Amino acid sequence: MQCVLQAEMLSSLVGIVHGLAKSVNMDCTTEGFRIQCLETDVSLCSFVLDKDGFKSYECLRPVTLGLNVDVLYMVLQQVDGMVSLATCGDVLRICCHTAEKKSSFDMKLMHIEVDQLSVPAVEYQFIVQMPSYDFVRTCRGCCGDKMEITVNNKIQFTSKGDQCSSSATYGGVLKNVGEVSLAFSAKYLSTVAKGAALSKVVVLSMNPDYPLCVEFGFHGGHLQFHLAPIDVCAPQ
Fold it and tell me: Which of 185, 210, 213, 198 is nearest to 40 (CA)?
């Protein structure tokens, strides 16, 4: 497998995964690559980048690359512009050439035993589209250890801590069937919000008693999170 893509995109992705897992598999096919990681039973993260999202991409046969996230994160802090990846046996070579410098890193690949999880197709009753900036700002402004998200004809984020409480309401509801209200971990929502680096728009999809789906779409792929609620809140 060998490819060339924007270092910023790869660095943003690895920065997100860095907060969820120490090691991940990158599954490469002729059509692009996919990364999936599960943080306990709370958060499932999946990243798909089709070959259209690369400057160039070639993979003659399916291959799985076991990556040490800490090492990859460190390497990507030192590159910018376009970055090339190429497999050489049990090594992933990462190169970056700019007008100012040339750098290369050989990263040993790992053998990681992990089952791929499939997410069943779901018809969501509540779908909201909003600016990523507003989502990030709201998640970072959570006052307690959980955030309650309520959707009816608008979407409302509320939180309560020992010293203060917060409430933020936005439009952008594309679909709603009545009202739903669920609470989620503020810690994981903050990690999810890092996906805003990849897209200006975020789509939130919800069903009662079901994980929240948060999706950031971009040219050639998407980053998707499934976040389990920590409790169910009765509609007010």
Answer: 185
- Please indicate, yes or no, whether the overall pTM of this predicted structure exceeds 0.70: yes
Residue 80's contacts (CB-CB under 8 Å, 6 or more residues apart) are 7, 8, 96, 98
pLDDT tens-digit readout, 180-202: 999 999 988 998 999 999 999 99
Q: Of 146, 208, 211, which is closest to residue 181 (Cα–Cα)?
A: 208
Q: So what's the pLDDT on residue 57?
A: 95
Residue recorded with tokens 């660095």: 11
Structural domains present in the chain: 2-108 (3.10.150.10), 126-232 (3.10.150.10)
Alpha-carbon distances of 189 from 40, 82, 221, rounded to whole Å = 15, 30, 21
- Using the structure block, give the residue that is written with the tokens 């409480």: 165
Buried b (16+ CB within 10 A) or exposed e, 185-218: bbebbebbbbbbbbbebbbbbbbeebbbbbbbee
pLDDT of residue 29: 95
Give which of 63, 69, 51, 90 is closest to 13, Cα–Cα. 69
* DSSP-derived pairing of the beta strands 155-160 and 165-170: antiparallel
DSSP E strand stretches across 40-79: 43-50, 56-58, 63-68
* 32-66 per-position pLDDT tens digit: 999 988 876 678 899 999 999 999 999 999 999 99
